[in-house]
Every structure is written in C-alpha cells, then in structure tokens.
Amino acid sequence: MKRGKLRVLLGAAPGVGKTYEMLEEGRRLAEDGRDVVIAVVETHDRAATAALVEGLPVIPRATVSHRGMELTDMDLEGVLERHPEIALVDELAHTNAPGLPHHKRWQDVDALLDAGIDVITTVNVQHIESLGGVVEKITGVAQQETVPDAVVRAADQVEVVDLSPQSLRDRLSAGLVYPAERIDAALSNYFRLGNLTALRELALLWLADEVDSALKSYRAEHGIEGAWQARERVVVALTGGAEGETLLRRGARIAARSAGGELLAVHVSSQDGLRSGDPGALAAQRALVESLGGTYHQVVGDDVPRALVEFARSVNATQLVIGVSRRGRLMAALTGPGIGATVVRESGDIDVHIVTHDAAGDRFPLPRVTGGALSVKRRVLGFALALVGGPLLTWLLVSLRNEDTITSDVLAYQLLVVLVSLVGGIWPAVFAAVMSAFTLNYFFVQPYYTVSIADPRNVWALILYVVIAVLVSFIVDRAARAARAARRAEAEAELLANVAGSVLRGESAVPALISRTRESLGLAGVRLVDADDTVVATDGEPVRDGRYEAVTVARRNGGPPAMLELHGHTLDASERRLIDAVAAQLSAALEHSDLTATARAAGVLAETDQVRSALLSAVSHDLRRPLAAAVAAVGGLRAAEPNLSPDDRAELIATADESLATLSALVTDLLDVSRVQAGVLAVSLQPVDSAGVVLAALDELGAGPDRFELALDPDLPPLTADPVLLQRVLVNVLSNAARHTPGGTRVRVATSRLGRTAEIRIVDHGSGVSPERRDDMFAPFQRLGDTDNTAGLGLGLALSKGFTEGMGGTLTPEDTPGGGLTMVIALPVADPVPAEERPLR
Q1: How many CA atoms, within 13 angstroms, populate the side-chain half-sphere of residue 81?
Q2: Does pLDDT of 803 surpass 60?
Q3: CA distance 430 to 275
Q4: What are phi and psi of 369, to 5 degrees?
Q5: What is the pLDDT of residue 790?
Q6: I need a surface site. Which of 26, 287, 325, 753 has the fewest CB within 10 A?
Q7: φ, ψ for residue 153 (rounded to 5)?
Q8: Which residues have CB under 8 Å from 23's CB, separation 6+?
Q9: Residues 708-720: pLDDT tens digits?
Q10: Residues 829, 757: contact at Cβ < 8 Å?
C-alpha cells in the first residue's frame, strides 16, 4: 500500500492560527470533493476555530478510564476503520491517554500514514525535540511534550503559519487566544514581545535549515555539482598571510549585500604540512571571521585550487574570494599560472573575486618542489633530467674534448648523477649512472665511438657510478621521508590546536573534534557511537549504503569503548595516522566528560555540607530563642507554683506551648530544607485537584473570605504533583502573602491553564519585592524586618521553591499591577503515564 503524505503546519507560539489554518484547508479540500475527516482537534474554546469544525465529519473521541478519571483522546482504530482520504490531526506532540495503542500522538500519525491516509497536522516550534533547550532558555519554561526532529523532517510538506509578535499579543489582549483571567499572566510571561520575536526567528531558521538540508540531499542524489544560488554564501580563502584581514572584510561586505548572506572562511593545509601559514595570523583571522558573524573551516589537500573549489561546492557557495598572488612577475613567468588562475578556470558557476592587497607581488621566493618523498612527479622529473641533461652535457664536453680532460669529464657526469638522485630518487639515478658510464666509454675513452671494456678498471667505474647513485638516493629518500613525517605531525598538531581553540571558545570538545575531522579529511560523514549504540556526536551526511570504516575509541577509565564511524572515501595510511591522533583526543574528551559527571555528583555532596553548616549556624541562634522562652516559662511555673495567680499560670503555660510549637515547626523545616538541598526529597507524583489543595491550605491557615478571594478555574484538569508537598507550598506562600497584604485588602488566589502547564497565582497588594532582591527571597535563612518569638528561620520560600521544583514545576515572583507581589506556582497537567511507571524524583 502506498504510504500517505504528511503535511505539518509549524507555528512559533500558541495562538498564531495553526489549527484555524488546518481546518480552513480541510474545508477547502472537502469542497473540492476530497474525503476529509477531523481525527482530533483542540479548539481551546475559541469561537472562530470551533465554527470551522461545523460541516466537517468528526471521528468521535475514544474514552479511557484512568484512576477514576474519564480521559478522551483520538480514536486511532476509529479513524483507520473509517479510512478517509485525508485526516486532520491537531497537536502532533501531544501525549496520549494511558491505555491507547501508542504513547504519543505522532506515533498515531505514523500509523495513519502507513495505512495510506494523508495527514495534515500542527505543531509549535517549542515542541521540536532538538529545540527544547533553546526554547527553555528563551522562555524559562521546560517543555514536557516533544516530537522527534526526524518525524517533522520526514514530512512531505512543512509550512510556517506566521504572525508578527505584536499582532499575536493584540489577539491575546482581545481575548481571542485565552480566557480573560489568563490574559495578564500570559502577556507578562510566555507572550512577552522578546520571547515571541525569538520564537518566530527560531521557527523560520529551523525551516530554512530544513529547506537547505533538503536542497543538499536533492543535489547529492541527482549528482548535481553546480551551485544553486538559493542563498548568498561567500567563501574567503585564507593562507595565513597578512592579507587575510583584507579578504575577510571584503567577503563580509559581499555577504551583507543580500539578506541571509553567509560568510565562510577556509584555510587549506597540505597533508605533508608544506603549506602552513602563520599560526598567530590564522588565530587572529579566525577571531575576526567569528566577530563578523561567519564560520571558520580547515581542510586538508595537496592541490589548493581543487580543495578550495570542492569546499565551495560542498557548501553550495555562490562567491569565492581569494587574494592576488604574492609572487612577482618574474616568478609568475617562470612557474606558470598560479592558484588564482586555476581557481577561476575550475570554479564553474561560482563567482570568483581576486582581491588586491598590500602583500601582492612583493616577494621573490625560491620555487619549491611540491609533492611528498618519492612521489610520481619527482621520479618523472628525475628521468626527464637524465634524458635531457645527459645529451646536453655530452654535447658540451665533446666540443671541448682532448686527452687531458678525461678527469673533468668523469666528474661532470658524476655531478649529473648526483643531481638526478636529489630530484628523482634511486631509479632515475641508477638510469643516469648506467647511461653516463656507457656515454663516457663511447665518447671519451679511446678508441672513440665504440663501447668496449678492455680495462677492468672501467668495470669498477661503472659499479662506482651505480653505488654512488644508490647511496645519494638513499640519503635523499630518508631525508624526504623524515621531513614528510615531521610535516605530517605539524598538520596533525594544527588540526588538534584548531579543535582546542574551538573548545576554549565554548564549543564542546567531542562535537568539535568530530566536525573538524570530517572537514579536514573531506569525508561525507563522521559520527561517534557509544557502546550502547547511543550517538554521542555526528557531523555530515548519514551512512546511505551501510559502508563505513570504524575506529575504536578506548576509555581510559576502563569503561566500554566507543566507536568512531567514518564514510565518504577510503582512508590512506597518512589519514589513518591522523585518525589515530583524533581517537586519542576523543578518548581524553570522553574521560573528561565522565570526570565532569563525577565532579558534579561530588558537588552535590559539597552543597550538602554547606547546608549542614548553615543549619548549625541557624540552630545556634534562631532555635535558642523559642527554646529559652520555653525553659523560662517552665522554670517559672516550677519555682513560683504556690504563689501564681490563675492568670499568670495560664500566661506561662501559653508561652511554653507557643515556644514549643514554634520549636517543633522550626525543626521540621530544618529537616525538610536539608532533604531538599541534599537532593534526597521523596516526591510521590499523582493527579491532584488544585482546588481541593487550595481549600485545604486555607483551612490549615484558618483563613476566611475576608482575607482571601478565590478565582478557581472549574475546568482546570488535575495537576501532576505531590498533594502533601503542594499543600506545604501553598501554606507557606499564602501565609507570606497574608502577612504583607495591608488591612482592608484581600489576597487573590487564581488558577488557570497555559498549554500543558497549570498555574496557581497568589496575588497580594503589599509593598512588593524589588527585582534585585528576588533571588535572595528563595535563599535559606533570609528574612525581611525584625523577628519575634514566632518568627521562622526564613526557610518558607526556600522550602516552597525546592518542593515545587522537586515536583517538576516552578515558583516565580512577578510584579502585581498596581503594586504588590504575585507568586506563580506552575506545574504540569496530569501526565497520562501511569504513576507506577513514573520514577520518584
């Protein structure tokens, strides 16, 4: 059966109109005669959205009974039985109710696609798995429900439903997104203008990267090597010379001419290290390109023009910036076309900018012989020197020949053999030695123009020619190999220094090593896989045909080894040496990661010791006061028992009772905060009715409607919380709010829902807390103002924050409009996963 097609409507935030767009598209398709059904839709009580549901067939939801609660969700079996042509499925990242076939809604969607049903679905950018951490940094809200990136990337069509941040806030203010009681909280928290702008940019960038990735895959699958100028990408070639800054600034100006232009700098180092620029200049130029918003890359290649062009094509570059050759006119005439001319010839449809600079043509370097020891090019040059130099030398010496020049003739041919040895190695040298011996015999030993060996000394002369040629060639070969090994080591050190620099700039060591290794060796993809098949880091394209080379990365602490997988081309011996060096660095990086985890665990113990020290300090001061009062009251009762009046006796007993009760509460708080700080707080999470816990907390405080105003949402679903801990949190926060609220005003307690998060807001109209002191509010042993016998240790808010975070929620302070402080307790709504399957926090 042909698999269905998936269309994803991606939004930056709730309320941008994803569900509305999905329903409008469903109605349009239905009007065109397509079989469209609503598998599941969440209208969130928005009238305009609910109106679009009318007229479209709706599959009734499945009802599941869980722990005494009736939960409804999409009926997968019903949709499959109905088998429409197109199904509308809202909220792709949703977690299904327990008892349904799949845990996540995206798994239901996958089943529909396998059944040949096309699906149109919606998802917000904050629910994409790889972006969860980024979104949490932006909004401060951790996402409980996510969908794997691969699910969204595999969609046949992804569309961004876009709405400007201010327009979304206007919709929110008009009551088109949330009920009136939730508008103020939403505008001052998640829906701040900065948050929405960042989320919108994140959604657009994610989609742009997805389009770029799809473009690269398409070009690779169809063998398209030419650049497609969908986005302006400017590659600047750096040599490590002084001209690099000029080239980078020119490249940045070119990239800035178009919206979304990218700047990439690349340095080509040879495998044998012959081309190595000034490390200091390269480091400064790398810092410059990063300050200009670009990225720095390093590749290895003996053919500089080809390496540059291949890199430019691999990143789909549209512009290539190189510097004018630093060779003078004479050297250019002697050595032929330089790198610039070759790049222009091979660049194809990539525009090449050759930029002049101060160092252009101001040097006269000696020509260098390229290539490694005993390369094919050097051997060919050696044979060519022997074939050309031999006849020329013979012509010259024959024209000057006489009986007294035989010694100089022999030395001249010996010099030719040495030169050929230096250039071409042993085989061209042996060829030159044999040819020189016979040439001397033919042209310079009487009788002339005959080859005869009448004297045994002539045989020795031939042998000596060959022996000298072999010895010189051997020395040249060893020197060249030693130089190549040293230069190779230099290239390896340069790569590893490059990675070290990445780590110092804040990049993670393992991903930096993986990325730089792939770039430097020109591989299609590299990834590091742990012993349990967990992908630690990856870079480049995934393995398509299952063929790759694997290198074991041992852990120095004796743990199971990881595996480094490389694919793209077969590695030669020199590249394997570099991979061995990278594997050693990866081993050190993995060890560092393991040690960091151990150090983090040790840090918890250190924090525990600090808490114990603080507890001892508190005991020495704060516990002494109620204890002393209780001891004094009991002592007074014992000493003056016969002479006490009933009123004095009752007062002493009340003082002792009050002090002992205060002492009991203080000890309880001390034990609780010790468990919170030490990370051993036991939390039993379960669905909790927020209204019931709020009322229980008010009963514990003995508070009535004269002090507290309730605005509880009757439709708020159960929270995921520990009811005992949540009541302690509410008691602490409510008592603080009541203490700081002036007479004649009431503390407002309101509940509301924001996506998968429920909020309990305690609003007072007291003096408030300045923003710079809000962090201190939650530190243990912090109090404002003087204390008396009934004052605590300043642990109430510290405990409340610890308890809330232990339940997976947050406790945050906000300004109350008109003055005062609002404490917001945010907790996830009831998790459909059964409690027995959830670990204790």
Answers
A1: 6
A2: yes
A3: 32
A4: -85, 120
A5: 44
A6: 287
A7: -65, -25
A8: 38, 41, 49, 52, 53, 56, 88
A9: 888 888 888 898 8
A10: yes
**Residue found by looking up tokens 């110092």 in the block:** 504
What three-state secondary structure class fits 103? coil
Q: How many CA atoms lie within 13 A of 740 on its CB side?
A: 21
680 has which bridge partners? Answer: none
Please name the residue that has the structure tokens 């230069």: 487
The token duo for 593 is 């990661």
563 near 585, Cβ under 8 Å? no
Other C-beta atoms lying within 10 Å of the C-beta of residue 305 = 22
Nearest CA to 185 out of 722, 725, 824 is that of 824
Encoded tokens for 719 = 């929270």
**Cα angle vertex 732, ends 727, 735, to 5°?**
115
Q: At residue 114, what is the residue type?
A: D
- Output DSSP code: residue 721: E
Tell me the pLDDT band of 793, cut-offs 50, 70 and 90: very low
- Encoded tokens for 653: 């007993």
The single-letter DSSP state of residue 371 is: S
Give pLDDT, residue 698. 85
- Long-range pairs for 141-145: beta carbons < 8 A, 24 or more residues apart: 141/190, 141/757, 141/810, 141/826, 144/95, 144/756, 144/757, 144/808, 144/828, 144/831, 145/93, 145/94, 145/95, 145/756
CA distance 836 to 327: 76
Which of helix, strand or coil describes residue 134?
helix
> How many other C-beta atoms are found inside a 10 Å radius of the C-beta of residue 182?
20
Residue 762 bridge partners (DSSP): 749, 823
The SS3 call for residue 393 is: helix
350-380 pLDDT, tens digit each: 888 888 766 555 443 333 333 345 567 778 8
Calpha distance 19→42 (Å, rounded): 8
